[in-house]
Automatic annotation (TrEMBL):
<comment type="similarity">
    <text>Belongs to the plant homeotic and developmental regulators ALOG protein family.</text>
</comment>
<keyword id="KW-0805">Transcription regulation</keyword>
<dbReference type="GO" id="GO:0003677">
    <property type="term" value="F:DNA binding"/>
</dbReference>
<feature type="domain" description="ALOG">
    <location>
        <begin position="26"/>
        <end position="153"/>
    </location>
</feature>
<dbReference type="GO" id="GO:0005634">
    <property type="term" value="C:nucleus"/>
</dbReference>
<dbReference type="InterPro" id="IPR006936">
    <property type="entry name" value="ALOG_dom"/>
</dbReference>
<dbReference type="GO" id="GO:0009416">
    <property type="term" value="P:response to light stimulus"/>
</dbReference>
<protein>
    <submittedName>
        <fullName>Protein LIGHT-DEPENDENT SHORT HYPOCOTYLS 10</fullName>
    </submittedName>
</protein>
<dbReference type="InterPro" id="IPR040222">
    <property type="entry name" value="ALOG"/>
</dbReference>
<dbReference type="Pfam" id="PF04852">
    <property type="entry name" value="ALOG_dom"/>
</dbReference>
<keyword id="KW-0804">Transcription</keyword>
<feature type="region of interest" description="Disordered">
    <location>
        <begin position="144"/>
        <end position="172"/>
    </location>
</feature>
<keyword id="KW-0238">DNA-binding</keyword>
<dbReference type="GO" id="GO:0009299">
    <property type="term" value="P:mRNA transcription"/>
</dbReference>
<keyword id="KW-0539">Nucleus</keyword>
<feature type="region of interest" description="Disordered">
    <location>
        <begin position="1"/>
        <end position="29"/>
    </location>
</feature>
<keyword id="KW-0217">Developmental protein</keyword>
């Protein structure tokens, strides 16, 4: 993400010294930055997109846009290092946003949407299209690195799963 504009944001407590304020948590600050970045992305669309008109397609476009700022090497299927967790040499495969970063981002934006007055039933960050996209990113990145992800069993025997399993995506 472009962090330049984030540095200029600062927070204001309204200037009343009688009102004691605490600094927002790291999570709250990140959520506000992410929300502002997404809003800027919508405003930069041609034509600009009003938040009330935003849908999962705009969210998917935003996630793909963010890939250009990624730092995670994701090997393509034709790469000699495809499927190797620790390749021995550099290659020309693209850098992408890591699945975990995208998953956390969507969680923050989903919360911010509702905190900013968006109705939960129309939250574009909670749509099935986003869940499917995140699952596909997770699986493709795991294959590219040669790391098997196993689905957790629903219900089950009560014994803990091994460390190679993943948690479910926190959407209901």
């Amino acid at each position: 993400m472009d962090r330049g504009k984030d540095l200029a944001e600062g927070s204001s407590c309204g200037g009343d010294p009688a009102v004691a304020t605490t600094a927002p948590s790291r999570y709250e600050s990140q959520k506000r930055r992410d929300w502002n970045t997404f809003g800027q992305f919508l405003r930069n669309q041609r034509p600009p997109v009003a938040l009330s008109q935003c849908n999962s397609g705009h969210v998917l476009e935003f996630l793909r846009y963010l890939d250009q700022f990624g730092k995670t090497k994701v090997h393509l299927q034709g790469c000699v290092f495809y499927g190797q967790p620790e390749p021995p040499a550099p290659c020309t495969c693209p850098l992408r946003q890591a699945w975990g970063s995208l998953d956390a981002l969507i969680g923050r934006l989903r919360a911010a949407y509702e905190e900013n007055g968006g109705p939960p039933e129309t939250n574009p960050f909670a749509s099935s299209a986003i869940r499917i996209y995140l699952r596909e990113v997770k699986e493709s990145q795991a294959k590219a690195r040669g790391i098997p992800y196993k689905k957790k069993k629903k219900g089950g025997s009560g014994k803990p799963d091994d460390e190679s399993t993943t948690s479910s995506i926190p959407f209901s």
